[in-house]
Structures are given as structure tokens and as C-alpha cells.
Amino acid sequence: MRYTYLTPFMFLLSACEPSQFAGGTALPDGSVYKGEMLNGLFHGPGQLEWPNGSHYRGDFREGRMTGEGELTGSDGCSYEGEFLNGELHGKGRYSCDEAEWAGEFLEGELQNGTLNWNDGETYSGEFLNYSFHGEGKLTKEDGSLYQGTFEYGTLIQGSYSDSEGYRYTGSFEYGSYSGEGELTQPDGTVFRATFRYGEAEGEGVRISTDAEGNTTEESGYFSGGIYYPSEDAWRAQANIPGAQAEARLYSESERLRNAIASLPSQRPGVRDIYTLLVGGDGTSPVFARELDWVAERLDEAFSIDQRMLRLSNGGGYGFPLATRTSIQESLNAIDQLMAPKEDLLLIHLVSHGARNGDFKIAEGEIPLNDFSLKDGRQWLENINAQYQWVIVSACFSGQWIETLNSPNRVIFTSAAADRSSFGCSDDSERTWFSSALYGEALNQGVYNPEAWFEAAKLKVTEMEQEQGIKKSRHSLPQYSVGEDFLIWWQESNSTY
Q1: Are the C-beta atoms of residues 146 and 156 closer than 8 Å to each other?
Q2: Which of 116, 271, 338, 391 is the most buried (most CB within 10 A)?
Q3: Which structural domains are found in the chain, ordered by start?
Q4: How far apart are CA 349 and CA 380, in angstroms?
Q5: Rounded to an integer, what distance in angstroms lies between the CA atom of residue 105 and that of residue 189?
């Protein structure tokens, strides 16, 4: 989302040494003022035009924009309303591209008001940094309604209803039912349970009403939004019985050892690239599919020559599971094979991301812990590999940049710290960021990390625009390129 933020202006004519001409007062930076003045300061009705095309028309007081006015930026975005000391302050209306914010502004920020999109979607309530934050109500263009407590643009607690007759009250995450809640279906059946990714999961209650109005309340067990009389009844039909899950865990240690043992040794005098690929959430098949493609593309781009270790959930028995333990052991094992100052450690992580930045890890009915920001920082700092390139494709992944930022490290993330990324639905072949990064953007060449990333970011933005995603919800991929890494990377590419 773009918006105009104005820092206070004061033009002291004696200090600026302006020149007078028939059309008005010209300032040293090329700005031109026309209007009333008092004691050498802009005061009263007037207009100010900047060299870049931005202009203001309205009231001035003692050299500052104060009172009623209209400000139009060089990008065409405009604000009309009250100003105080050069900032948007008071009642006003801000318009930019396909959206309009209106309400009460305080020191340049909208505090409470409305946001209307041209396609008919509307939000009314509290704001922070021009995003939904606090109590509010969001009405989608299809008539569905989200109402309750928002945090950084996403509903976290409240209610949902739509034209089909679905009604939900409870907790939300990523815009889906998540946590304790109650879902009423169009036929009147009520699910009262814990929800995960929009579906009732675990123990809960089903309340149904027959044609005569009689209500029946049944305790039972939910899986994937389907009700079972008991957990035993569900296990009898589950795709992965508990015994099979236990057998999988029992064999994991050997599977990981074999995968590590297959990695070729480091070649002295050659810059080898050791790669760790991690697909975290096995409940979403897109992540395992993505790793298949990313492995091929990375090998083509970097000539990895089998120095690649893959941990994947949801992809069958072909690869070791991705767990906190397997990630840590893999990093340590790869580190033992590498020449610390000669080789590159390349890591690609893809999964769902939690709002606190943690990397989601899940596999069927096996209870697994997530991979946290703290884990990543500690484990990468404790290995000897000096040069590291970390790519994270997950919602809210921008937090990994702040956590891992280092002169010897490159970090690419699919989203800003407070934004979701896209392309993780079950029918997707790969996430949008990875599709862009390892697609046409690779033509930029991997030897210029910034150019490679910027090409991918541009492609992601184009995809979001084509799908009608509003700018206020764009993922805003982020990157950090350490100065020492860049020097080493460019020198090593000319040497090897």
C-alpha cells in the first residue's frame, strides 16, 4: 500500500533566500509558492508546487501546511482534508490507485475510519500503519463479512458469515478458522471444536437439528472437518494409522544417515555448493511438489553435482522427514563436509509461516515442533560454514531477515515481516515466490543476487496484480545481501 506521509515543513524566507517573480516565490530547490505571507512566512491561503510535480493547495500557518487543504503526490495519490504542522491531521480522505481511506488522521496516520476498494470491498474500523488493526468490519465483494479484532490486516478473533449460510465465531489465523470456535453450516448443523486451517480437528461437539426442530448434541472427533463418533472410529478409516506413523518414525534415523552418507566430499580448490532443501508442512502437498522442481532448477543454476540434501514432509518415503532434529543434524553433517571459507551453504525452506515468524512443520498424525527463528539463528551461527545463502518461502518470512542478517549471509524471503505470501493452496504446483525466483528470474544469473531477487520480486508483483490482489495485501518479498558475502561471491566466481 502506498500513502503520502508529510513531515513538517517550515519555509523561512530569510534563510532560504527565495527570489520573487511575477508568478510567485521561487525556493532554492525549485519549489514555487503562490499565496499570502506574513512576516516572511507562508501564511493564509496559498499553493505550493514541488519540482517532482507534487502540489498542495490550501491553508498555511506560520510557514506550515495547517488547516484545510488538498495534497496531490507525483504518483497521483491525493489527500483532501485537515492538516496540522505539515501532517495529515484531523478529518480527511486519502485516495490512491484502486482504494480510498477516509476518517480521522493523527500525525500522518489514519486512526479510525473506512477503506473502500473500487471493486466494492470495504473495511470500517481501527487502523495502524494504514492496515486493519483493532476492532473493525471487513465486507468482501461477494458479500462475506469478517468482523472482530484485526491485527496487521488480518482478523484474529471474531466472526464470519457469507451468503451461502456459513457462520463462524472464534479465533482466526491467515484468514482461516484457527483455534477454538463454532461453525454453523447452511443446514443448521453446528461444529463446536478446535479448528486448524479452516477445518474442525480433534475432539469436539456436533449439534444437529431435525425437520421437526429437535436438537441432538453429540460428542465426538473431527478430522479434516469430518465428524466421527470417536477417535477410534476415525483411526479405523484414517489414511495413516498410528502404527504406520510409529513405523515411519522408527526408520527415520537410518533414512537420514543414508541420505547424509550419499553426499560427495568437498573438493579442495573448488568452490562447492552444498544445498539443504526443506519442505515443512506435509498437510499441504504443494511444498513437496515444489521441492522436486526447485531441486532441478538449483542444480541447473549452481551445478550442485549431487551435493544436495532434501528433507520433505508429505512426499512419501523417498526422503527423510523434515523435523527440528533432522534440520539440525543435516546442517551439522553438511558443515563437516564443507571447506568453511571456500564453499557455499545454500538453504531453501518452504512451508506455511506463523505470525511470529516460525516455520511450520507437520506430517500426518505425527506431532512435530515448528522450526523457530531462534533455532535458525543459533544453528547457523554455531556451524563453521562462513558463507550462507538462505531462501525462505513462507508467510511472514521477512522476520528471518532481521534475525539472520549478517555480512556473510544472503537472505531472500517471499514476504515482508507482516505480510502473507501466495501459492500454497493444495492445487498449486509451487509457491508464487519460488515460481518467480527459479523461473524467468534465473536468466538474470545467480552471480548478481540483487538483480536475481529484484527480477523475481517484479514477477511476484505482476502475478498478484493479475490475480486481483489489492496492493495493501501484496506480499512484498524482502532480501538482504551481506557486503562480505558479495565480495567473496564475486571474487570466487572469477576464480573458480
Answers
A1: no
A2: 391
A3: 13-118 (2.20.110.10), 164-237 (no CATH), 242-495 (3.40.50.1460)
A4: 14
A5: 44
3-state SS of 1-37? CCCCCCCCCCCCHHHHCCEEECCEEECCCCCEEEEEE
CA distance 128 to 354: 20
- pTM of structure: 0.56
d(CA 481, CA 496): 21
Per-residue CA distances from 102 to 125, 158, 170 (Å): 11, 24, 29
Q: CA 481, 485, 487, 493: dihedral to nearest 10 degrees?
A: -110
Q: Rounded distance, CA 424 to CA 314, Å? A: 14
CA gap 81, 449 in Å, rounded: 44
Separation between Cα atoms, residue 337 and residue 264, nearest integer Å: 8
What does each of the 496 residues of the chain score in pLDDT, given as a tens digit? 223 333 333 333 323 445 555 557 888 888 999 999 898 889 999 999 999 999 999 999 998 999 999 999 988 899 999 999 999 999 999 998 888 999 999 998 999 999 998 888 999 999 998 889 999 999 998 889 999 999 988 899 999 998 888 999 999 987 789 999 999 988 889 999 999 888 899 999 999 887 677 889 999 999 888 899 998 888 776 655 555 566 667 778 888 988 998 898 888 888 999 999 999 998 888 899 999 999 989 888 887 878 999 999 987 777 899 999 999 999 999 999 999 999 999 999 999 999 899 999 998 778 889 999 999 999 999 999 999 999 999 999 999 999 999 999 999 999 999 999 998 887 788 999 999 999 988 877 788 999 999 999 999 999 999 888 888 889 999 999 999 999 999 887 655 4
